[in-house]
Amino acid sequence: MLTVVQILAVLAALLHGYIFVLESLRFAEPKVYAGTFHVERADLAAVQPWAFNQGWYNLFLAIGTLIGALLLPTLPQAGWALLLIGCGSMVAAAGVLVATDRRFVKAALIQGTLPALTLLAGLLTQI
Predict the structure, then answer these.
(1) Whole-model pTM above 0.85?
(2) Dihedral angle at the C-alpha atoms of 25, 93, 108, 34, nearest 10 degrees?
(3) Which terminus of the chain is less hemmed in, N or C, by CB atoms within 10 Å?
(4) What's the CA gap between 40 and 24, in Å, rounded?
(5) Dist CA 75 CA 79 (whole Å)
(6) Residues 112 and 95 sit within 8 Å (Cβ to Cβ)
(7) What is the DSSP string of the chain?
(8) What is the pLDDT of residues 33-68, one digit of tens each?
């Protein structure tokens, strides 16, 4: 079951790495700012710095989660701590996203499912 936790955590980290790319590197593309994030062109200049910063948050969560997954077999306490804070933050952010704007239910499900499954699988390994 530990391998399942690691695989799910790595997938959650990769997804959040991709979100970093969208928010920090590709946000100015119309398909991204308008299509993915529902931002009007007139608001792009104001919103882009916030998106850039948010992308870095997602990258840091991804890195912490990935390191946690890698540490699980050799340093389990550190690995679990990193997975709990990384995946827990990802799930909480998905909850905030959908609570803030119902148009983002699909995005919240995409963002939150893998880390939630990671935490659930982690809980099942502890029972």
Answers:
(1) yes
(2) -40
(3) C
(4) 17
(5) 6
(6) yes
(7) -HHHHHHHHHHHHHHHHHHHIIIIISTTSHIIIIIIT---GGGHHHHHHHHHHHHHHHHHHHHHHHHHHHHTTTSHHHHHHHHHHHHHHHHHHHHHHHHH-GGGHHHHHHHHHHHHHHHHHHHHHH-
(8) 999 999 999 999 999 999 999 999 999 999 999 999
Query: Cβ atoms within 10 A of the Cβ of 117, count?
Result: 19
Q: Which two tokens stand for residue 77?
A: 């306490």
Find tokens 């919240």 and name the residue.
108
